[in-house]
């Protein structure tokens, strides 16, 4: 990251880049940003690490890394996202002042704990059914999203946000942003979702 730590992550469509190596990560990032993504969040990158670092450093705009603050710092990313496989939120806040620290949460109690530990933004989900959480976590729904939003932090909705009507529901619940994995990889699917977000925000929701 060049410059000061941002006060908050950007509002709008986020692309999740998961289980990708350097070349694939770079290509997916470019395609997502061309389709309207305002932020990229990277999780479980595949080696070699040098190629991943190069791809992250080259990507313009806001970049966040899940669970790995050392990778986020080395890649000059903007943020690191705490989760079950990472150092605790409060440790990341103290140890990496150059990064905006967010937290991945799944219910209101987790969200409160993350806020109290110093998280500056939250990823909340799964809001709807998603293959990655099927059989692990039940969908939380837009009403639960609205409860987490009421805590006062920017909230990025994740999990099953794969259609324009669901994007509109995130905005109506007060979500700061939405994150998509499979949909963000397909510009034909992602573009209507980006348009739905812009229409919802222009209409005064969110």
Task: Please characterize this protein's 3D structure.
Helix 7 (164-172) packs parallel to helix 8. The chain has a single domain (12-202), classed as Aldolase class I (TIM Barrel). Helix content is 38%, strand content 19%. The two termini are 28 Å apart. With 206 residues, the protein is of the alpha/beta class. Strand 2 (39-43), helix 2 (49-58) and strand 3 form a beta-alpha-beta unit. It has an 8-stranded parallel beta barrel with strand order 1-2-3-4-5-6-7-8, surrounded by 6 helices.
Level-2 CATH architecture: Alpha-Beta Barrel
Oligomer: single chain
The count of helical stretches stands at 8
Order of helices and strands: EHEHEHEHEHEHEHEH
Percentage of residues in helical conformation? 25-40%
Number of structural units classed as domains: 1
- How many strands, which pairing sense, and closed or not: the largest β-sheet? 8 strands, parallel, barrel
> What is the molecular shape?
globular
List unreliable stretches of 5+ residues: none
- What is the class in the CATH system? Alpha Beta
CATH topology: TIM Barrel
Placed side by side, the strands forming the largest sheet appear as 1-2-3-4-5-6-7-8
Radius of gyration over all CA atoms, rounded: 16 Å
Mean pLDDT, nearest integer?
Answer: 94
CATH superfamily: Aldolase class I
Estimated structural class:
alpha/beta
**Fraction of residues in β-strands:** 15-25%
Sequence-ordered SSE layout with sheet pairings:
Elements: E1 12-18, H1 22-35, E2 39-43, H2 49-58, E3 62-66, H3 69-74, E4 79-82, H4 89-95, E5 100-105, H5 108-116, E6 121-124, H6 142-149, E7 155-158, H7 164-172, E8 177-180, H8 187-202
Parallel strand pairs: 1-2, 1-8, 2-3, 3-4, 4-5, 5-6, 6-7, 7-8
Helix pairs in contact: 1-2, 7-8
């Amino acid at each position: 990251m060049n410059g000061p730590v941002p006060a908050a992550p950007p509002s709008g469509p986020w692309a999740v880049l998961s289980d990708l190596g350097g070349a694939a990560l770079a290509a997916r990032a470019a395609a997502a940003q061309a389709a309207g993504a305002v932020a990229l969040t990277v999780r479980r990158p595949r080696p070699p690490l040098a190629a991943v670092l190069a791809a992250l450093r080259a990507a313009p705009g806001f970049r966040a890394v899940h669970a790995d603050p050392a990778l986020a710092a080395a890649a000059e990313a903007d943020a690191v996202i705490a989760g079950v496989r990472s150092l605790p939120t409060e440790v990341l806040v103290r140890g990496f002042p150059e990064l905006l620290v967010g937290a991945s949460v799944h219910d209101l109690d987790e969200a409160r704990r993350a806020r109290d530990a110093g998280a500056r933004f939250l990823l909340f989900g799964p809001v709807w059914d998603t293959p990655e959480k099927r059989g692990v976590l039940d969908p939380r729904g837009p009403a639960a999203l609205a409860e987490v939003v009421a805590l006062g932090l920017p909230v990025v909705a994740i999990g099953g946000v794969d259609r324009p009507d669901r994007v509109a529901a995130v905005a109506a619940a007060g979500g700061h942003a939405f994150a998509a994995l499979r949909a963000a990889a397909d510009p034909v699917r992602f573009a209507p979702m980006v348009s739905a977000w812009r229409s919802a925000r222009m209409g005064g929701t969110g």
